[in-house]
Amino acid sequence: MATRMNPDLKKERESASFDPEKITNFLYGGPEKLRRKRELESLALNDPDFQHEDLNFMSREQQYETQLKKGIAMITKMKELNITDFWDQYYYTTAVLVSDGYPMSVHERMFLPTLRGQATEQQKEKWLKMAENYAIVGTYAQTEIGHGTFVRGLETTATFDPKTQEFILNTPTLSASKWWPGGMGKTSNYVVLMAQLYIRGKSYGVHPFMLQIRSLEDHKPMPGVTVGDIGPKFGYDFMDNGFLALNNVRIPRENMLKKYSRVEPDGTYVKPPSTKLTYGTMVLVRAGIVMSSSRVLARAVTIATRYSCVRRQSEMKPGHPEPQVLDYVTQQYKLFPNLAAAYAFWLTGQTMMSVYNKSSSQIEKGDISVLPELHALSAGLKALSSARADVGMEECRLACGGHGYSHASGLPRLYTNSTPAATAEGEHVVLMLQTARYLMKSYTQSVQGEKLAGSVAYLSGVQPVPVAGRTRNMLDLGVLCDAYEHRAARLVREAAEQLRSEMQAGKDQADAWNATSVDLLKAATAHSQYFVVRNFAERLTDTTLDSSVFAVLTRLCQLYALHGLVTNSGDFLEDDYLTGADIRQARRHINTLMAKLRPDAVALVDAFDYPDGILNSILGRYDGNVYEHLLEWAKASPLNITDVHQSYQKYLKPFLQANRAKL
Ligand SMILES: CCCCCCCCCCCCCCCC(=O)SCCNC(=O)CCNC(=O)[C@H](O)C(C)(C)COP(=O)(O)OP(=O)(O)OC[C@H]1O[C@@H](n2cnc3c(N)ncnc32)[C@H](O)[C@@H]1OP(=O)(O)O
Ligand SMILES: Cc1cc2nc3c(=O)[nH]c(=O)nc-3n(C[C@H](O)[C@H](O)[C@H](O)COP(=O)(O)OP(=O)(O)OC[C@H]3O[C@@H](n4cnc5c(N)ncnc54)[C@H](O)[C@@H]3O)c2cc1C
User: Fold this and answer.
1) Atom 26, ligand 2: which residue's CA is nearest?
2) Domain span at 494
3) Per-residue pLDDT at 470
4) Which residue positions are annotated as catalytic (predicted)?
5) Within this chain, do residues 559 and 482 fall inside the same structural domain, yes or no?
């Protein structure tokens, strides 16, 4: 194994204008947190129990088994090592699982949070203790073959039987079968089942129920339960996403998770303070996806940037040595906006999590007034960040040329395992339209003279009237924030006006909404993008930032804002808020910023601090020794175990021989 550093990467690191460790500290919340992160990562990465053959060389069954085995070892070790803090667990598990998950990740991410959020103290005593100690394994069974988005339209029923004090669970139609829950296919023995509650023939909407689906003795399906794996998918090979059909399965009345609503023994329904509290787990996961989207984009851009410094191709000037491909400005234009976006969303993810934590503690104290804002913000930012990561990861893969298509790059697996974030936990458009719904309401309130707060406060401000011929400094973050604010406010206002005019033209509310939905989507996207830009700019007001770090982060913030502005220039030009000259100036600034960022590119991706073991990419190796490791990796491919594959004897040899004999 080569240990020397690729000379190009070495030079890149020596030329940086700042010490990457300073940015790493900023990203991870200070030296102590960073030290702990590294300690946990190296603990996991050096543990022989987590070493195994490359998953890319395995069948789906093998991947499932490997990740299950590894996941169990991971949980056992976290308990032994007393790793309990959220971030400690995050760093440790990320280092164990690399670009993948494991069959019990929905247990962690949704089953436990649902028990914590929806169960009474008594119910927690009964199930949460068992679930936290892995005496049972569960998942979150909401989506059905026929309905995922339309939660109110779910068809699974939980009918209360007052005689026996039980609920009778049924999936009465094929379309009611649960479909997709992670870990349900083969692993889980419990689910939180989201089902329509019926009492004396009347429906009371979707509620959560604890249901045992497999025997605790032999893991066989419980009576009345049909369960299995839904088959191979675009990615997520290690995960047994499952189907579930129920035929008159009876559970005790106590199995309804009843922190917020319940059914009394006589069948009286006690309603929750808000029906939307049932959706609490989804809000938590959406908030988390904002953060995880930034992390996957940071990984993709680390891989592509390092590789672009190692890779040399073509002649920029006749007769001159081949340049590093990162010296092509078009390559910088592929990568640097993604680098800037990774930083922007990293900081947005941190803000989203702190908004979530603050709001959920208020909700816990009974103040549900914060729920609409939390839902709207998390929905929009989840949709925006996952879509941005999707596009960015693909651009990074394309930026690696042919080698980007190989699993050795780590990029295909990163993409296929992360792209569900755009669909799962609320499809992109559906969630943006939820944000738009909140924006429309807020806009109406502001028109009626109410003062708005939180992420929509700007809607009650007076939007600056465009001034013809005004020249602006398009690098000024204040100017950029104002431009994004103006665009968002205008698009919200115009969508509201369009909605009203559709209704005035005779459409009912629903048809008018549908007819306006492209404008609504645009407004919600602009609102979410404004939040990201403003959040980035606000983080730069931190006076403790080192001046070299401040300079380079400011460039990234400017690049993120300018790139979004140029890409969506029509939005800023439509009402003459910006002029053609402003956009031209913005394009020039992008070029200048890219030139300034070029010497810092490697240091900026190094600052994300992904060790090779987590990056899991030959192209993105820290030492840049790509080609020798590509060859070594290819040699390990199962097709190379023998020089002549057995199929030669079976198929190719007789075929070729017969053809030769005919000549
Ligand atoms: C290293 C690699 C890492 C990679 C990392 C990748 C991660 C990759 C993930 C993998 C996978 C994970 C595991 C996936 C696990 C599932 O996917 S679990 C299933 C998730 N399912 C969904 O998200 C379904 C989406 N649908 C919904 O949430 C809702 O049904 C909808 C669309 C919001 C509509 O709900 P609805 O009840 O019909 O509501 P609607 O009539 O539109 O509105 C009614 C009111 O409720 C409000 N409301 C709706 N929802 C809420 C809410 N949640 N809170 C508060 N209010 C709400 C509305 O704002 C509205 O308010 P008003 O305007 O009336 O005041
Ligand atoms: C990898 C993965 C893991 C998952 N894990 C789980 C799990 O653990 N538990 C679980 O319960 N579920 C899980 N799901 C299911 C997931 O939550 C749903 O697939 C998701 O919410 C999208 O719903 P859908 O499939 O019904 O899409 P659909 O709603 O059918 O979307 C299809 C199209 O219709 C459009 N559309 C739908 N409604 C509207 C509307 N109102 N307005 C405008 N356009 C609309 C969408 O934009 C989309 O383009 C998982 C899914 C995946 C891919």
Assistant:
1) 148
2) 474-606
3) 73
4) 425
5) yes
462 falls in which pLDDT band (50, 70, 90)?
low
Residue whose CA lies nearest to ligand 2 atom number 52:
424
Catalytic residue among 155, 166, 425, 502: 425
- 182 is an annotated ligand-binding site residue: yes
Residue 106 CB less than 6 A away from ligand 1: yes
Q: Which residue has the CA at smallest separation from atom 37 of ligand 1?
A: 152
Distance, CA of 76 to CA of 410 (rounded, Å) = 28
Contact 198, 168 (CB under 8 A): no
Whether ligand 1 lies within 6 angstroms of the CB of 296 is answered as yes
Q: What is the pLDDT of residues 198-228, one digit of tens each?
A: 999 999 999 999 999 999 999 999 999 999 9
Nearest atom within ligand 1 for CA of residue 151: 30
The answer to whether the CB of 430 is under 6 A from ligand 1 is yes
User: Is 158 in the same domain as 214?
Assistant: yes
Q: Note if 425 is an active site residue.
A: yes
Protein residue closest via CA to atom 39 of ligand 1: 152
Quick one: which of 577, 593, 388, 431 has its CA closest to 490? 577
Q: Which residue intervals of 29-158 are DSSP H helices?
A: 31-45, 60-80, 86-97, 105-106, 112-118, 121-123, 129-132
Which ligand is the nearest neighbour of the Cα of 237?
Answer: 2
Please check whether residue 557 is in contact with residue 537, taking contact to mean a CB–CB distance below 8 angstroms. Answer: yes
Question: Which residue is closest in CA terms to ligand 2's atom 39?
Answer: 430
CA distance 24 to 648: 52
Q: What is the CATH number of the domain that holds 188?
A: 2.40.110.10
Q: Is residue 581 part of a domain?
A: yes
- The size of the chain, in residues, is 663
Same domain, 487 and 545: yes
How confident is the model over 66-82, as pLDDT tens digits? 999 999 999 999 999 99
pLDDT tens digits for range 373-398: 999 999 999 999 999 999 999 999 99
Q: Which residues contact 9 (CB under 8 A, 6 or more apart)?
A: 306, 309, 310, 602, 622, 623, 624
Tell me: do 172 and 257 sit in the same domain: yes
The reply to whether ligand 1 has any atom less than 6 angstroms from the CB of 369 is no
DSSP 108: I
C-beta of 421 in contact with ligand 1 (< 6 A)? yes
Identify the CATH number of the domain in which residue 44 sits.
1.10.540.10
Nearest ligand, measured from the Cα of 439: 1
Q: Which of 253, 272, 291 is the last residue of a domain?
A: 272
Tell whether 209 and 161 lie within a shared domain: yes
Q: Which residues make beta-bridge pairs with 270?
A: 262
d(CA 92, CA 79): 12
Same domain, 141 and 267: yes
Compute the distance from residue 649 Cα to the ligand 2 centre, in Å.
Answer: 47
State which of 102, 120, 147 marks the end of a domain: 102
Q: Is the CB of 147 under 6 A from ligand 1?
A: no
179 domain residue, yes or no? yes
Pair (130, 216) in one structural domain? yes
- Do 536 and 557 touch, CB atoms closer than 8 A? yes
Helix residue ranges, H only, 365-460? 371-399, 411-418, 428-447
- Give the C-alpha separation, 485 to 489, whole Å: 6
Give the tokens for residue 624: 């840049």
Could you tell me if the ipTM is greater than 0.90?
yes
Closest by Cα among 249, 318, 309 to 13: 309
Ligand closest to Cα of 417 equals: 1
Q: Which of 341, 596, 595, 576 is nearest to 472 (CA)?
A: 576
Structural domain includes residue 596: yes
What's the CA gap between 186 and 191, in Å, rounded? 12
